[in-house]
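Section handout 9: paired folding examples.
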Amino acid sequence: MELKLGVLARLEAKPDKAEELNEFLIGGKALVDLEPGTRTWYAFRLDETHFGIFDTFADEDARQAHLNGAVPAALGQEGPRLLAKDPELSTVDLLAVKHEGD
């Protein structure tokens, strides 16, 4: 299945909540595992308080299902407690993708 679309979210934790956000993101994988249209999902840490999520999808329906899914809902609930500011969310069109074995 060709990956054509993505979502990039940049997150900044409150300084005293960085480890909680770290654990929240690790736990988010279990929710994303239940989304058949989310083909890849990466949660990452850039530095002490900056984190991100990058996901890929084959079509817009799958991307919208994810954006309306469990992780964004949980982040909406926990965000005010964990985040220094609102997430920076970008939808992206993938230009080239390397799959293992390519």
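Moving on to protein 2 of 2.
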Amino acid sequence: MAPRKKEEDIQQDKKLSVEEAFAEIEAKIQALDSDEISLEDSFKQYQKGMELLKYAHETIEEVEKKVQKIAEDGSLTDFE
């Protein structure tokens, strides 16, 4: 069984912007495309990439919930 992710690793991911998370995901994909990567390292890269993808998705959802639209009368209302 794989060890659980350390809390400090989770907190470090939370400080990433979505763009940084996607850049790291791209780096993981490139590493997986390498002929020199071991099966164990492939799994680690894949797992980290999936964690980053989940983080990016959750972050985007949070932003979407906060998006505001301008009502016809000029007031701001939360996006629903």
